[in-house]
Design brief:
The complex is a heterodimer of chains A (about 240) and B (about 450). With about 240 residues, chain A is of the alpha/beta class. Chain A is about 50% helix and about 10% strand. In chain A, the strands form two sheets. A four-stranded parallel sheet of chain A has the order 2-1-3-4, with helices on both faces. In chain A, strands 6-5-7-8 form a four-stranded parallel sheet. Chain A is globular. Chain A starts with a strand and ends in a 5-residue tail after the last helix. Chain B has about 450 residues and is of the alpha/beta class. In chain B, the strands form two sheets. A six-stranded parallel sheet of chain B has the order 1-10-7-4-2-3, sandwiched between helices. In chain B, helix 3 crosses helix 12 and helix 9 packs across helix 10. Classes of the chains: A alpha/beta (about 240), B alpha/beta (about 450).
């Protein structure tokens, strides 16, 4: 199958490793991976910060880039949730019927990576090898926004050599929340401190999640408090091989 | 005075910063919300068709909201037929004035109150003092807040921010009680002795209302302590204040909410006291009944197709308890009697999105979605938060930043150029101190040598 990467602006700029890992996983499964460099941002940051008009333009730009893509896969639950759940609202709120119908048509074709592997590919073991002690933070937009619940754990648990430890109160938000992290930095930091304490108490090497925005926040907090553990995107764990 | 209104005195950001410095508050809140959340989860898990019940509740509310005009008139007619009087209040001031005039007509100087957040919304207690009328809170936690000259910090558990030692000290000071220990039982007994006397001597009571049935003219209050029932049955005059959105079309509609509300709020299968009355019954209970229908900004919310679902709220407070922001900052940070996620959407809308401080509330959320998941009437709070954020005034500096990012993002070529210079950009931003709000509590990620698109291009070549 031809799979179109929706890399997300954040991954493109700051976390290319995640995009590379996603490409590797999909190619190993026999897919042809396409990347259209006309893609930028899905508009979530503008929409969630109250800049609706700008977000609508970015949404339409996104739809234009991916209009012929049969299957779109992204290593971000948050951005997929925006495309799938919020584009329609954006159309309604700007009274743009074309946007509403385009968004309705698009939503069926966009998948978060773990969701694609589990529900389209119907595969749990992607042949990964990662001999490390890890915990997993289920990010809010993937867990509740996309309704993935704890299904991505199936992929993680199937990784060879992995030593998985459950994170207490795992479904609690890490406190990132996009611009919330700077607008309400004190509250955000208080939430982050609790998340970091929970991770630090586990004596793990890595905290895994499927959204680099949240991981940037958690990782930034962990780095401030200690050297270990590190954060890593689920795609990078799933792309790891024994020969490495 | 207990009460508080809905107009925040400052921004959420400032109020939250202050609240976060209080470690006792955080401990009290953390303990209380964790306990309530765990109980709620198991109470909800007992109902196999909980999701269908939520859909049913949301549907009934939506139907009521779409026929509100007719239903309110029908309710007025039924209550009038049953010997009650219905008043219409456009604003908080009008509602307070109506209560005061009834009290004055009966020459009453003291009224007892059933726990009512609507009365706190209109700052009834303070309003009545202008006419030298004292309102006595009879809900234990509301009483605690009143005695402490403090405002409630939670819809359901107004004194959630206080622990038992603080309450003991308060009762010793204000009620003159003496205690051997801070056992909740002893504290409750002291309150009981104080309140019983009030129940037996007061001539007039004021309450809110959980539901009112248009079909029958029946008003309903659910509560846990029984103090509400004392107020609703012992005095001669009863005045109930109800937001116009609380009306339900049919008698049978109440049943869905009698199942949804207790499990979502107190995590009980059923609340201990459910009081229902229709007008007045000669020789039994209050012989004079007034229902005040309060608008106070609700019609404007109703007129907004997206904001409208806010009015489904049944004040269960499940969204407060599950909210990671509320759990840390508590109710006072929201500056309104409606705190937490529901407050973050209700308060600014009640103020027509025209209050600068209230307009910071839609930003008091990470959009984590825990509130929507817990809401028994499926109010999509994160969606409304996002919707309302657009209606707020932005600072020039912030707008400039977002416009700049927008210009880059709406131009793929420019975006590609920026990605080539991420490292430069980060160091420039850092020089100008733009990254401070982030780096104060978080390190920056390592900036990669090349962006994904550069990697992709190199690979293709």
């Amino acid at each position: 199958m031809k799979v179109h990467l929706f890399i997300t602006c954040l991954n493109d700029a700051l976390f290319p490793k995640t995009g590379i890992a996603t490409t590797q996983i999909l190619e190993r499964l026999g897919h042809t991976v396409e990347f259209d460099p006309r893609q930028t941002c899905c508009g979530q940051m503008h929409l969630n910060s109250g800049y609706r008009k700008e977000a609508a333009v970015l949404a339409k730009q996104f739809i234009e880039v991916f209009k012929d893509a049969e299957c779109i896969v992204s290593p971000s639950g948050s951005c997929v949730a925006n495309v799938r759940e919020m584009f329609i609202n954006l159309g309604k709120w700007t009274e743009d019927e074309a946007l509403v119908s385009d968004a309705e048509q698009l939503r069926e074709r966009v998948f978060e990576l773990s969701e694609f592997l589990l529900t389209v590919e119907k595969i749990e073991d992607v042949g990964a090898y990662f001999p490390h002690r890890v915990t997993y933070h289920p990010t809010c937009h993937a867990t509740r926004g996309l309704g993935l619940s704890d299904s991505p754990l199936k992929l993680l648990k199937a990784v060879k050599g992995i030593d998985y430890v459950e994170l207490p109160d795992s479904s609690q938000c890490c406190g990132f929340g996009g611009t919330f992290s700077v607008k309400n930095a004190d509250t955000s930091s208080a939430m982050l401190a609790d998340k970091c304490d929970a991770v630090n108490a586990l004596d793990v090497e890595y905290c895994v999640a499927l959204d680099n925005s949240c991981l940037m926040h958690i990782g930034g907090g962990l780095k401030k408090s200690s050297k270990e553990p590190k954060v890593i995107h689920l795609a990078e764990v799933l792309a790891s091989r024994e020969e490495r | 005075m207990s009460g508080g209104g809905i107009r925040p005195a400052t921004t959420f950001t400032k109020a939250a910063r202050l609240a976060l410095q209080n470690s006792t508050l955080r401990q009290n809140l953390g303990f209380a919300t964790r306990t309530i959340c765990a109980k709620r989860e198991s109470a909800v898990a007992e109902i196999p068709n909980w999701q269908e019940l939520r859909t049913l509740g949301a549907g009934i509310k939506d139907e009521a909201l779409s026929n509100l005009n007719e239903l309110l008139v029908q309710l007025e007619q039924k209550i009038t037929e049953a010997g009650g009087t219905v008043h219409w209040a456009r604003t908080a001031e009008e509602a307070v004035e109506i209560v005061a005039s009834i009290a004055k007509r009966h020459e009453v100087q003291e009224v007892i109150k059933v726990k009512s957040i609507t009365s706190d919304e209109i700052e009834l207690n303070q309003g009545l003092t202008h006419d030298n009328i004292i309102a006595i809170e009879t809900d234990l936690a509301e009483l605690i807040c009143q005695l402490a000259d403090d405002s409630p910090s939670h819809i359901l558990v107004p004194a959630i921010h206080k622990n038992r030692d603080e309450i003991r000290e308060l009762f010793e000071r204000k009620l003159g009680s003496t205690f051997d220990s801070s056992e909740p039982k002893l504290l409750a007994e002291a309150a009981r002795i104080y309140l019983r006397e009030k129940f037996l001597t007061s001539k007039m009571a004021v309450s809110g209302a959980n539901y009112a049935v248009a079909e029958t003219g029946t008003v309903c209050i659910v509560e846990s302590e029984g103090n509400g029932r004392m107020c609703l049955t012992l005095p001669e005059v009863l005045v109930s204040i109800m937001g116009i959105e609380k009306v339900l079309p049919l008698w049978e509609d109440v049943s869905a909410f009698l199942r949804l509300l207790p499990r979502s709020s107190t995590a009980e299968r059923m609340n201990p006291y459910t009081s229902m009355w229709t007008g007045v019954t000669p020789g039994d209970g209050p012989q004079e009944f007034h229902l005040i229908l309060l608008d106070n900004g609700r019609s404007d919310i109703l007129a907004d197709a997206t904001g409208r679902q806010t009015l489904r709220c049944i004040r269960c407070s499940a969204c407060l308890n599950v909210c990671p922001v509320y759990q840390r900052v508590g109710g006072h940070a929201y500056g309104s009697v409606y705190p937490g996620p529901i407050g973050a959407i209700l308060t600014p809308q009640l103020l027509q999105m025209a209050d600068v401080n209230a307009n910071t509330l839609p930003f008091a959320s990470t959009l984590c979605g825990a509130c929507y998941e817990a809401c028994p009437v499926k109010i999509n709070i994160p969606e409304i938060l996002i919707y309302l954020r657009e209606k707020t005034e932005k600072s020039t500096a912030e707008s400039f930043g977002f416009q700049t990012v927008y210009r880059v993002m709406s131009n793929p070529r420019l975006f590609g150029l920026v990605l080539k210079n991420t490292r430069l950009g980060a160091s420039v931003a850092s020089t100008f101190g733009l990254l401070k709000p982030w780096t104060n509590s978080r390190e920056l990620p390592d900036i990669p040598k090349e962006s994904f698109r550069e990697w992709w291009r190199n690979r293709e070549q």
